[in-house]
Amino acid sequence: MKNQGHRIYLTLPHSSRTDYFNLVQPYCEAIILVKPMKFYSSAAQKNTLLGSVRNYFYSAYKSGWHILPVVKIYLFLKRHKIDIVHSNTCFSIDGALAAKLARKPHILHIREITGNGVGSTLKLYFQGTAFFKNLMSLLCTKIICNSHYTFNASKIDFPESKMIVLYNPIKEQTHSTSERVSATKVFGCVANLTARWKNHELAIRLLKNLQDQNPDKQLQLVFFGSLPVQTDDYLLSLKNLIKQLGVEDHVKFKGSIPQDSIYSQIDFLIHPAPFEPFGRVIIEAMVNRVPVIGINAGGAGELITDGITGLLISPEISQSEIEKVSYVINNKEVRNQMVSSALAFSRNFKPEIILTQLEQIYLSLNSSNLAH
Q1: Where are the alpha helices (DSSP H) in 229-303?
Q2: Which element (helix H / strand E) includes 22?
Q3: How crowded is residue 109: how many other Cβ atoms within 10 Å of its Cβ?
Q4: For residue 317, which of 238, 210, 229 has the smallest C-alpha distance?
Q5: HSE-CB of 305 using CA atoms within 13 angstroms
Q6: Which of 67, 273, 316, 345 is the most buried (most CB within 10 A)?
Q7: Which domains does the chain show, CATH number per domain?
Q8: pLDDT, block means (10 residues), the chain with 372 residues
Q9: Is the CB of residue 313 less than 8 Å from the CB of residue 325?
Q10: How far apart are CA 33 and CA 165, in angstroms?
Q11: Residue 87 forms beta bridges with which residues?
């Protein structure tokens, strides 16, 4: 956006992390740090009325009683003559309130399914209330959803006339991404073990089914992503399942490693999450020429064309689906064709394409002094 003549100003929450700050600083005219009002209850409080009230006042106290961050952002908007306010998350409403006070257009960017329903990837009490959704509908000029799945899940709460779909941009790779040469076929699952809704169990069951279908093949499943403490009940339940299925020697937990090094270690990506709003790792795998197996739901069901750009399976994993995946495992020519089609599809997510679409959204708001 900066290369197109626009000036970017950024507000960030206080954090001990400096990597992100250093990453975005070259692209911004100025950055301010604020303590946003979080508006969510901890799991221990179980969203009880008393717990929510206590959490509200504690969060308000920690953020400067909510007034200070809004005022700070408001003054920042006036000082730098900001034309458009774009909130990149629904965690905080401070940007929306400041934009309203400054009489500037506000964009809410929804990247997660919030609330308290079955498909919610973030169980946030306040964001699940009618008050929050009505308030944001009033404060927002435009609402961007990161997929059609997110759009459809959110349109029951927000005015559809304000909503639009804009996918996440994914950078193209510049390093070699030729197929691994190994007797063992490695299936990677890139999904934090701290996020239970990622449905890691499906990946384990798929591995077992594929082993039974292909007894002559050496297959391995590797989990990448943040690990909870070793005594975590969810992690223990997954390890118990691995033991019950007799695949202890074929499943590994590697934890968090640099994203760029993951795809050179795997032959297939398994994406088992049924409620994934977008599925960034799916497009990353396509860019890196790694075949993708995803559940036919959520973002995966939207991004993968079964048999063309990847493979889709149901939560039950039918016998025909096991045979379908096995066929691709054993047929290099089919894999290569699928990888080529997926790579062509992934080019729709190039940053320059997505940012051009974002620029058009900005221009459509008809704000004044857009040259700033």
Answers
A1: 233-244, 259-262, 280-287, 298-303
A2: helix 19-24
A3: 16
A4: 210
A5: 10
A6: 273
A7: 2-169+351-364 (3.40.50.2000), 184-348 (3.40.50.2000)
A8: 78 71 83 66 51 62 64 92 90 87 94 68 63 86 95 89 96 66 92 93 98 96 96 96 97 92 95 94 96 96 97 96 97 96 97 94 70 41
A9: yes
A10: 29
A11: 108
Long-range contacts of 206-210 (CB under 8 A, 24+ apart): 206/270, 206/272, 206/293, 206/313, 206/317, 206/322, 206/325, 207/247, 207/250, 207/251, 208/245, 208/246, 208/247, 209/317, 209/322, 210/322, 210/325, 210/326, 210/329
Q: Do 233 and 349 contact (CB within 8 A), yes or no?
A: no
What is the layout of strands, in order, in the sheet containing 85-87?
85-87, 106-110, 142-145, 163-165
Tokens 């999904």, residue located = 191
**Stated pTM of the model:** 0.86
* pLDDT at residue 92, as a whole number: 76
166 phi/psi in degrees, rounded to 5: -140, 115
Residues 6+ apart with CB under 8 A from 266: 180, 186, 187, 188, 222, 290
Q: What angle do CA 112, 309, 210 make, to 5 degrees?
A: 90
